[in-house]
Amino acid sequence: MPPVTCYICGRDFGTKSVGIHLPSCKKKWEAEQEKLPRKERRPVPTAPQDFDKVVKGEVKGKDLAKINQKAFDEHNESALESCQFCGRTFKPQALASHHRA
Q1: DSSP letter for each residue of the chain
Q2: Most buried one in 39, 56, 71, 82, CB count within 10 A?
Q3: pLDDT tens digits, residue range 45-88?
């Protein structure tokens, strides 16, 4: 069974463990955002369409691969920030050290 990609953190999980992972990942995202100034805070990334079916184990094969790609894209667009100079994407903390380099 292929892994399921978390749309918040971008990590891969088994179909049974992704349902356990999501609530703690959302809490971690919100806790990290609370540390930032209000202007820099971002909402929790949104789940791709039919992601609830993936969590329930109802989606398999090519459909799962498509949803995983959507989840990965959502993570890249919502959770990562791109460098204004080179265009690479980083987590916010890594982007700060990338700018210093």
Answers
A1: ---EE-TTT--EE-TTTHHHHHHHHHHHHHHHHHTS-GGG--PPPPPPTTHHHHHTT---HHHHHHHHHHHHHHHHHHT-EE-TTT--EE-HHHHHHHHH-
A2: 71
A3: 999 998 999 888 898 899 999 999 999 998 888 888 889 899 89
